[in-house]
Specification:
Belongs to the G-protein coupled receptor 1 family. With 374 residues, this protein is mostly helical. The chain has 2 domains: 295 residues, Up-down Bundle (Rhopdopsin 7-helix transmembrane proteins), CATH 1.20.1070; 47 residues. The protein is built from 13 helices and 2 strands. A hairpin with a 2-residue loop joins strand 1 and strand 2. Helix 2 runs parallel beside helix 11 and helix 5 packs parallel to helix 8.
Length: 374
């Protein structure tokens, strides 16, 4: 038996639904992965809506990095989680060779983008707190966008080899998506991924936040300590540190499983199967945890989430009012005046900061009064 056939047989046995009398994946995967997909999609969509509403990212480098992190998480949830769930649910890969390569490429692309972004934002937080005045010229939105471009470019370069790393291999009556490279090449690739995608960013983050925390708690300046700016910077730094710690904890088991298989004794049995499944669930769950952290720690995001929800509810309410009024309009009755009057009352009372409804631009028949748009 060749090396690839041996590896395919082991992975097929590991993933096969009939490998054990009772497979936990048959229950865990649909529930956990569906929950991750739902929370990740909704949560990151809300974060993007809050940051993009009224152009709030245009004047703040930290918000731009948070936007970049949310985009990486959103892409990961959409393009990776649904496909990866099938590995534990079905006995073979049913999406073809191209998707086998593309899905794993996106997994590592978004992982690199997240880790590089966290490293960049840790340096940004250190400069903002340690050198608030001297770093203003460096911490500009333009430079943040340039940093984001560099982050995604490096992510593409480091994850590019995964387009050829995975391939379909025939196993029994189906095909499975497994690494197709020789063992020594896999060791080089996976070790490089662990080093550049995890270890180095974690070291940068650890150094930056260690110095940041040391300065925050040891700097003696009573007037500065009482300022709202200092308190706000502490809260933002606290939020980013929590996000970073979660990333490190969630992705560590994933890397441990891969390195343990390549360099140690990692047998294929029910215990290692459960640990492998847990490591994947933790890595994927990381993409839906960040919005929860933002909501719990940041008052800004809590207010933003509430405003987005209120805007959505008001829009649905206006749609229902519009349908009901249109249904009960008598022939020959001008409904425009009543409709616009009702919506203007809603706009004046509740729609501050919400997206302007196009129907509010309707002018009642016979009105000579100019329409005011806030």
């Amino acid at each position: 038996m060749t090396e690839h056939e041996d590896f395919a047989g082991l992975v097929g046995h590991w993933n096969g639904s009939d490998a054990y009398p009772f497979s936990p994946a048959s229950i865990i995967v649909p529930v956990v992965f569906s929950l991750i997909f739902l929370l990740g999609t909704v949560g990151n969509s809300l974060v993007l809506a809050v940051l993009l509403r009224n152009g709030q990212t245009g004047h703040n480098s930290t918000n731009l990095f948070i936007l970049n992190l949310s985009l990486a998480d959103f892409f990961f949830i959409i393009f990776c989680v649904p496909f990866q769930a099938t590995i534990y649910s079905l006995e073979g890969w049913v999406f073809g060779s191209f998707m086998c390569k593309a899905v794993h490429f996106f997994i590592y692309l978004t992982m690199y983008a997240s880790s590089f972004t966290l490293a960049a934002v840790s340096v940004d937080r250190y400069l903002a707190i340690r050198y608030p005045l001297r770093s203003r010229e460096l911490r500009t939105p333009c430079n943040a966008v340039a940093a984001m471009a560099v982050i995604w470019s490096l992510s593409v370069i480091f994850s590019g080899p995964y387009l050829s790393y995975y391939d379909l291999i025939e196993w029994e009556t189906s095909h499975i998506c497994v690494p197709g490279w020789e063992e020594w090449k896999r060791k080089v690739m996976d070790t490089s991924t662990f080093t550049f995608g995890y270890v180095i960013p974690v070291l940068i983050v650890s150094l930056s936040y260690t110095r940041t925390i040391k300065y925050l708690w040891t700097a003696i300046d009573p007037l500065e300590n009482m300022s709202e700016s200092k308190k706000a910077k502490r809260k933002v730094t606290k939020m980013i540190i929590i996000v970073t710690v979660l990333f490190c904890l969630c992705w560590l088991p994933y890397h441990v499983v891969i390195l343990r298989y390549l360099y140690g004794d990692f047998p294929f049995n029910q215990t290692t199967y459960a640990f492998r499944l847990l490591s994947h669930c933790m890595a994927y769950a990381n993409s839906c945890l960040n919005p929860i952290v933002y909501a719990l720690v940041s008052k800004h995001f809590r207010k933003g989430f509430k405003k987005v929800f209120s805007c959505l509810l008001q829009r649905n309410g206006r749609n229902r009012v519009h349908v009901l009024r249109a249904a009960h309009t008598m022939p020959g009755f001008e409904a425009g005046s009543t409709e616009v009057s009702q919506m203007n009352e809603d706009n004046n009372g509740h729609l501050s900061g919400c997206e302007l409804d196009p129907r509010s631009l309707m002018i009642p028949t016979g009105s000579s009064r100019p329409l005011h748009i806030p």
